[in-house]
Every structure is written in structure tokens, then in C-alpha cells.
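pipeline stage [seq->struct] | target=histidinol-phosphate transaminase | organism=Limibacillus halophilus | residues=366
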Amino acid sequence: MSARFSKILSALPASTPFVGPETLERMRGSPYEVRLGANESAFGLSPKAMAVLRSEADRASWYCDPEHFDLRELLAAEFSIARENIVVGEGIDGLLGLTVRAYCDPGDAVVTSLGAYPTFNYHVAGFGARLLTTPYRPDCHNDTAALVDLARRENAKLLYLANPDNPTGTFLGRSAVEEILEDLPQHCLLLLDEAYYEFAPDQDLLPVIAEDPRLIRFRTFSKAHGMAGLRIGYAIASRDTIAAFDKIRLHFGVGRLSQLAAAASLGDRAFVATVIADVAKGRDDYEALARDLNIPSIPSFTNFVALDVGSEDRSQQMVHKLHEMGVFVRRPGVPILGRFVRLTVGKTPERVALKERFADAFRSLI
């Protein structure tokens, strides 16, 4: 007789946090012409990172450095912290799973916004913790007071917050995040997902204080650095937290080429600055599209913009119509946010193609 699955796994429904565009392309029988639904960077890799990948390709057969020493040294210098305050992992997705595993026993309470990043919820369920949510505010910002109140009432272990936010693109400045930290209940950690921090106003970001025991910060090379397919991110936390992660992390999970490319890109400030500027232009284009169609959009501090098409039904229609037109986009699927369609910033030709098809689809709505 074969071994039985764990009680946690047996109780879970079949699910995945995302249906990838490749799956949707197989369903539609042809590739998308415009791929603007996954918040990938349309602007490629740093030339320095590309040069490293080419020069090191013959050594792809080698295992990685399991300590990620060189990259952690560079990150430590970047933020004026110690190498021991940094852990590298398989993107923020992998690091969130590591965090839930490290801190949560089955049944422990975890708090987030309803409609926030679904991969975090996936990990919470997978490790048997108890997910509790509170809706976004009517203005589509995270309801930070409600999140803290919920964490206090339920004696939560973790409070997850993306800032800038996914899927809305909104941003909480330094004072708002400091207020959350001050109000956190004892023994509750703030997990601050800063995947899009490069696109936010630098002067209003919470300073990096690595030894703050209340906080773990997550950052990635997937967005501004264009390395979503290389799966590499990092977390900044107290030395005690990082040492605990070392007990359970997947030491060979981040490949050698990913580490080298990330290190090279980190040293290419000019490239990243160009990406940030190009994304800002693209956001302007999408906001202009919204104005042309006389619909609202959420001011964004990310590489995407969410456009309000009026209702959840109309949003579903838009995604379906664009899918049929060869355009991949996504939409949130929860109350308050369900009326939006989210558009990743593409290069100029992609934005032009999207603008034409989006306008046609919108005008054809029932």
C-alpha cells in the first residue's frame, strides 16, 4: 500500500495561484500577440547581465554557490547592512514560502488583504496556517487599520502587505508603514513585499533598518531588472531570522547563472534608471487611454496600471474579448477590485497595439 498524503495536503482543493499565459495559449490554440498580463519587464536584461550569461553559459553545468556569498556582499554594500541580514531565494515567491514554513504551525493565524498577491495565500494553505483577510478600502488602498485590528484580534503570526501594492499599484509612504509597525501586536511580523520598490519615490520609502525584529522585507530582480524567468530575489531581516532561514532554505535553489546575472545587473544603475523612466512613460500612456475612454484608473507606482471598466461583469468581458484579440491581460477577481483590468507596461509598439484593441473591446461591451 502506498504512503498516505499528509492531513494538510489531503484537505487542500486542487489549485494553483496563477494560470500562466502558456496554459491560456494552449487553450486558445495560438500564441498571444501582446503579452501584458504578468507584470514581466518588457525592457529586457541589463547588457552587463546579458554579457555575463553569455560568457558563463559553458559553466551552466556547475552547481551554484549555496551561500550566495558574492551577491549577498553586493546587496549588503548597496543597503549599508551586513551580509548576515540577507537571504537569497527563488524569487519572492520562494522566500514567502520559506517564511510561512519558518513561523507558522498548523492553525496559526495569518492576515492579508482580500485580493492581495495569491501566491502568499497558496503558501499559507500549503503549510496549514489559517488565512484571514480584510477588504481593500473603497479607494482601492489596503485598509491598514483593519489589517492591524484583525491581526490583534486573531493573535496573528504574520501580516502580509505588498508596497507598492499588487494588484492595485498603490503606495504607502514611510509614515504609513511606520504606523503599521508601531501598532503591530506583539509576536506578529510584518512581511513587506517590495517587489516594485524601484518604481516608488525613493525619498518616501521606509529606510532599511535590517535588525528591526518586527519586519521582513522582500525584494526581487524580476521587475526593474527584468529577470522574472531567472527566479531570484532576496529578503532583508534580522540576523536571527536569516540564521533561522538557513536551517530550512533550499541551498541550491538559485542557479549559478541567476546569481551572476543578478550581481551584474545590480551594478548597472544606468540600465535600471532607463527601465524606470520607460515604465513611467508607459504608465502615462495607459492613463491617457483611460482618459480617452472616460474611465478611471488607479495612480500606479509599479510597472502596471489598473483601469476601471465599471463592473465585475464588464471586466470579465474585457479580459475575454482581449484574449480573443490575442492580448494577454489579467484582472483581480474579488469585490471592490473586480471591476478593474490590469495592464502591464510594454514597449511602445505593444502599447499602441493594446490601445487600439482595448478601445475596440471596451466600446463593444454590453
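stage status: PASS
auto-comment: The chain has two domains: 18-44+270-363, 47-267. The first strand starts at residue 34 and ends at 35.
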